[in-house]
Amino acid sequence: MIRIDNLVKTFGAKRAVDGISFTVERGEVLGFLGPNGAGKSTTMRMITGFIAPSAGTVTVGGFDVAQSPLEAKRLIGYLPENAAAYTDMTVHGFLDFAAEIRGLAGEARKRAVHAVAERCFLGSVLYQSIDTLSKGYRHRTCLAQALIHDPDVLIMDEPTDGLDPNQKHEVRNLIRELGRSKAIIFSTHILEEVDAACTRAIIIDRGRLVANGTPEELRAMSTLAGAVTLKAEGATAEDLAPLGRVEALGDAFRIYPADKAKAAELSRAVIDLVSRRSWKIHGLYSERGELDEVFRRITLPDTVKA
Amino acid sequence: MKIVGTIIKRELGAYFASPVAYVFLVIFLLLTGFFTFTAGNFFERGEASLAAFFGWHPWIFLVVVPAIGMRLWAEERRSGTLELLFTMPIATWQAILGKFLASWLFIALALALTFPAVITVNVLGDPDNGIIVAGYLGSLFLAGSYLAITCMTSAMTRNQVVAFILAIVVCLFLILAGFTPVTDLLERWASPAFVDAVAAFSFITHFDGFQRGVIDSRDLVFFLSVIGFALVANGVILRGHRAG
Asked: Which residues of B touch A100 (CB under 8 A)?
């Protein structure tokens, strides 16, 4: 549904987005990660046709956003950063306006406005002026606007920013549910959201794409991935040393595999050793790896990396 | 065209959503009333015409029209709704035209509310109502030109006050180019052809005809060109922001 090909955006001498390519198909929820200023919002603004790329193309549903912007924009629902909305309007007036622009009329428009208001829990503030709303409601009003025409493609710039934990949970569930039938891209810097809602994630740093994979694949890039943490009475670092590099964590030990591909063998070897020596086990975990470690390792400047 | 209608509806709604619209209407009516009847010596003139009324319009509009139009783009840019607007399936020209027409309609409403002046002259005397109609038409186009210029300056900035002042400066320049004291001054050192050429760019020169009841196609073309030029420039400025 969304194909991004070698996208570049320069602001003066600065290359805000520097040759990014990726695709998103229907049924995928793509988490768009990166530090602040990495080029996430700029990329999303180019996908939605708000700003023109300096080079490269964006195709949405077969329409080139630069060549046929109106056709492409009809397929897209967009939640901009900061969730801007016309504050002089009521929630109902604003959603009605969005629906009318999207070509909905009469009964269909009324139904769409009410369906989307219910879905985003706006029923109680429907006839309130937007400038009287709290940030969470304002945010959901803007989200409702993005969903009003049941778009095939949904682009959301930090959809959970400024929401309380309950609202965050609701929005993540909503994204996961919508993701079954749509192509979704959302940016975030909350890494749990990748696990909570995404089928795939990409990480960009200083305008370049530095990682692209499922949450599992990204996590496997962690140095921690495949390591075994053992807490057992009688075990010593010397006993474990033959299995791999050992790190002491209080009274527990973490053993790193010499070769990540053989991580499964490592945990089997540790279990063997434990049963041969008849140690009393208090805990034994196989580490999946941590996303924030991966994130930090690939987005920090090279000097800090070491 | 349907999209333009939707935008007009939203923009007009935005005017009347707050008391500002009503305050504007009242201020405009008070200003025209004061200038016509007090400063314009309406009664002392002893003639059944609205010359005193229309003569002040270039000056009253100079303050009122930029105040009405200054928010059109500046506010969208400041609040970030511009991003929302231009990621909806709306062509730039539709948004520009919709906003311009909405404000123009609002000004037309303000002008329509000056009808008591027309009744007054008709009760007191026997005016040429054709001249009055031409005067209103001229006023409408004059206001439209100011408004288009305000749309353009509003797109240049996210600060409404800056948009307001820029619009006043540009409009004032276009008024003064044909204002008698200025043309008299120019005539002292410039050739008459040059003075005429400068005056040809002035609102005053082209507004005068309407006041006398003459609807000259050249004057209409002038106002429509100013509107067209300013709105095209408006589009170029908006595209410039988005090309970044």
From this structure: 6
